[in-house]
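User: quick one
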Amino acid sequence: MAQQAIRTKDIPEWADKKAAEKTKKQREKGRKMAGKTFEQLSQKQKDVLLKALAVQAGLIDDSDDE
Amino acid sequence: MQQLEIKGGLSNEVDLPVSLAGMEFRVGPGAFKVGGEDYELAEEQVYTVEGSESEPVFVSGYLVKKVSDGSVALLVDERVFGEESYRFEASAPYQLLHLLVRASVPAGVTDLNDAEVTVAKVLVDDEPEEPEE
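Assistant: Done. Structure below.
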C-alpha cells in the first residue's frame, strides 16, 4: 500500500512561521489604513476593510483563506 | 508530464517511476544515488494535490532524508502564487536530497494531465571511452 507523502504544511515549525508571516502582513495592512477616513482609502483597502468587518460580524466565512 | 534529464556524473542517479492519476501523483519505490551515497525509497509515495478554484498552485515534490532516523520520504510543498516556498534550513527536520517533481497547476484544474508537471531525472554519465592508440 502506498504511503502518504509528508506535507510541508504539517511541519509544525514551518506552519508556525507561515502563520506569523500572515499576521505580520495583516498588521502592515492595518497600519497603512490607520488615520485615514473611509473615503481616503483606495478601493483595494476598502474591499479589505469591508471583508474584515463582514467576517467579524459573522456574515461571511474566511476559512478558505487559511 | 515532461521529463527533464540531468547528467549526474558517476555519483548521482535518480530514476524513480512517477505516475499521475487525477489530482494524485505517485513516486517509486526504488533505489537512487545522491552525492555518491545510496538511498532507498522503501515504499511508494502518494500525494493528492489540493489545487485552488481561484488561484494557480505550485507544487514541489522533494526526496528527503528524515534527520531523526535517516529514512527516505517524499516531502511535498504546495503553495498558491505569492506564498513563500519551503526552505530547507539547517534546523529543518528533513534534509533535501533531490527536487523530483515540480507542477504548475492553473486555477480550477481537476486533473494533473491538464497541468504542467516536470519530473527531474538524474542519469549517470557514460564513462568516457579510452582513446585509441
